[in-house]
Specification:
Elements (H helix, E strand, L loop, with lengths): L1 H19 L5 H14 L11 E6 L14 E6 L5 E5 L7 E5 L11 H38 L2
Antiparallel strand pairs: 1-2, 2-3, 3-4
Helix pairs in contact: 1-3
Length: 149
């Protein structure tokens, strides 16, 4: 009886953790970009730097469930760099950055497009992997309880 109660509790906790995973809003992404950039020590020379959202990774049709951005890219000031922030909190917050230059979505080379598409696949995988792990864990727990009878 105690084993079943423990397994049920584990199941509920797993569901709670999976429900915690969510999309980042544009405001959260901006806060992450600013915080990261400040951590690089660059804002000391440019206080109040302007962060402009210049690109959102809407994807190339990979995501079937949601149309939320995979990532946000913010340019900093005039040629002071850019920060690429993931749109999903199951993934590392900062996916890429530069401390100089700027990101121009209209002049993106094909290899960079491929790199972004790979990020999109990985973010999709993180999303589906969490759901699959939970399903497998529940099935395995059911199998073990049958096996121990």
């Amino acid at each position: 009886m105690e084993k079943r109660l423990l397994l049920c509790l584990l199941c509920v906790v797993s569901v709670a953790f999976s429900l915690e995973a969510r999309q980042r809003t544009e405001a959260e992404a901006l806060r992450i970009a600013r915080s990261f950039y400040e951590g690089q020590g660059m804002l000391r020379s440019a206080p109040g730097s302007d962060f402009r959202l210049v690109y959102t990774g809407e994807g190339s049709g990979l995501r079937s469930v949601s149309s939320d951005p995979y990532y946000y890219i913010y340019n900093v000031g005039e040629g002071d760099g850019f920060v690429m922030v993931s749109g999903d909190d199951r993934v590392a917050p900062v996916l890429g950055y530069s401390l100089s230059g700027s990101f121009d979505p209209g002049d993106m080379p094909s290899n960079m497009r491929g790199w972004f598409e790979e990020y999109e696949r990985q973010i999709d995988h993180a999303h589906t992997q969490l759901e699959q792990m939970f399903r497998l864990r529940v099935q395995t727990m059911g199998f073990r309880s049958e096996w121990s009878r």
